[in-house]
Structure formats: structure tokens, C-alpha cells
Amino acid sequence: MTVDEAIKSADRLYPNRYTVEEKLRWCREVSAAIRNEIKKIYDFIVTDTDGLRDVIDRVGFDRVESIITGEKTHPKTDVRSWYNDGRRMLPVDFRGKIKVVYLTVPEDYRYVTYRGDAQIREGVLVLPEKCGLETGDVIDVSYGGKDATFTIVGDEDGYYLGDDTIDYEGEISFEKRMCEELECDSPYDMMYVDFIIGKICYYQGDYENYNQHMSQYNSKISMYQRWRKEREAYGNMQNLRGYWS
User: Fold this and answer.
1) How many other C-beta atoms are found inside a 10 Å radius of the C-beta of residue 196?
2) DSSP assignment of 138-166
3) Which of the two residues, 229 and 23, has the higher pLDDT score?
4) pLDDT digits (tens, 9 = 90+) for 13-49
5) 129 phi, psi to nearest 5 deg
6) What contacts 91, CB < 8 A, 6 or more positions away?
């Protein structure tokens, strides 16, 4: 299920007045909970002694798993003792490159809409300013009485729509499709729908339905956690991307 499908399903089941942006924030709450507690994926940044503190501050100390120097892995308990009142107190044997291993977070779900004057010149959508679209995004566009769907194939001097026969100038509106896959598959992905509806019920003071949907959410995320646990062959570090590179 995509994030767009989850939101539309929640809207069908429980019509509401809340914005897409609000529902996307709720979906990210679920995704962050899954990444933090169940589906842990690690990455690393290569730095040196001079840049180590900046990397740790940028990643966030809470998300640091360990630090690797050469063939030696230093756990977070050691890392905590390397700084005292903001002063660097690194072990004396630190030389060369340092890998900071950290727990990743899900990216924000991007929702982009636009209505206003624009140009399409030889299939390139040119706006007064960049609006947050990226290569690979799918957009539904209305222009000159026509409706079309395009996939952005480039975004250097404008947004390339993949059809160089289109030329148009005037008012244009478009909406980015939210095609991002959720953090879990069926049947557990319905937890997103329950969480969205639960949030809506809570803010509307419908506490009976809130309790019902949050109970369903808690049940599904617990089942998903058990399912993942039963199928883990190794520890969480098997999800470290590019560990040996």
C-alpha cells in the first residue's frame, strides 16, 4: 500500500476535514515508530577525528549505534566518555577514517501542489521558482483545458515531463502523487489507516471511536513486531547498508 492509498482509504471510511499535510505527518509517526522499534535499518558516515563531533551532532547522539576505527568497533558507552563539557577527548589510537554507524529515520512524505502561471516549453515545465518536485515524481497536471499525468524525468533547468511536443503558457495546476510505499506490507499496513482515523477521532472528541481504532492500531503493530521477530535470522546489523564498502 502507498501512503496515498492509506490516506484515501481513511477518508472513505471516516470522512473528515483534515488536510493532506496533517495526515502525512500522522503516517510518518507510524513509519518512525516502525523504524525505531521494529524495522531497524542502519547506515554509516565516514569522517575523521576533526569531523567526528560534527557528524555525531548532525546524526544525533541518540541515533548513533557505534563508531568503527580500522578493525575495532567502539560501542556507544565508549563514545559517551569521549566528550566532556563539549571538549573532545578521543582515544589516542584514533587515526585515519572513522565510520559513524547510526539508526536511520524514514524520509518525510512529500506533498507538492501548485496553481498559477507557468510555461511548458518543449516538454519542460518552467515555474517561477522551484517547488520541491524531484526526478521520478508523478504529477497530475491540468493546463489549457487538458488533464495529463507525467513522471518527472529530470529537474535541471525546469521539470522535464518526458514529452518534448508540449508547448503551453498560462495557468497550470498540478498535484504530486504520493506513491511512496509504507514501511510494512499487507495485512499489517492497515495500521496506518487505523492510526489516521484514530487521530481524527481524537481531535474531534470522538473518544469511543478513537479507542477502537487505536486498539486496532496497537494490535496490528504488535502482530507485525512478532512477525518480524520470528523471521529474523540475524541481529539488526544485517540491515546496515554498505557496511564493508
Assistant:
1) 28
2) EEEEEETTEEEEEE--B-SSSEE-S-TT-
3) 23
4) 999 999 999 999 999 999 999 999 999 999 999 988 7
5) -155, 160
6) 74, 82
- Helical ranges in 81-238 per DSSP H: 190-203, 207-230
Lowest-confidence region among 157-161, 169-173, 189-193: 157-161
Cell 511536443: give the residue.
165
| pLDDT grade for 159, boundaries at 50, 70 and 90 | very high
Contact in structure between 103 and 36 (CB atoms under 8 Å): yes
* C-alpha cell, 162: 518526458
Q: How far apart are CA 105 and CA 145, in angstroms?
A: 41
HEC string of 54-75 equals: HHHHHHCHHHEEEEEECCEEEE
Give the span between the Cα atoms of 11 and 8, in whole angstroms.
Answer: 5
Number of Cβ within 10 Å of residue 197's Cβ equals 25
Residue 202 grid coordinates: 481524537
Whole-angstrom CA distances from 45 to 42, 56, 86, 230 are 11, 10, 21, 31
Per residue in 74-103, pLDDT tens?
Answer: 877 766 666 555 555 555 456 678 899 999
What's the mean pLDDT when you consider all of the chain? 87
Residue with cell 503551453: 168
d(CA 139, CA 173): 10
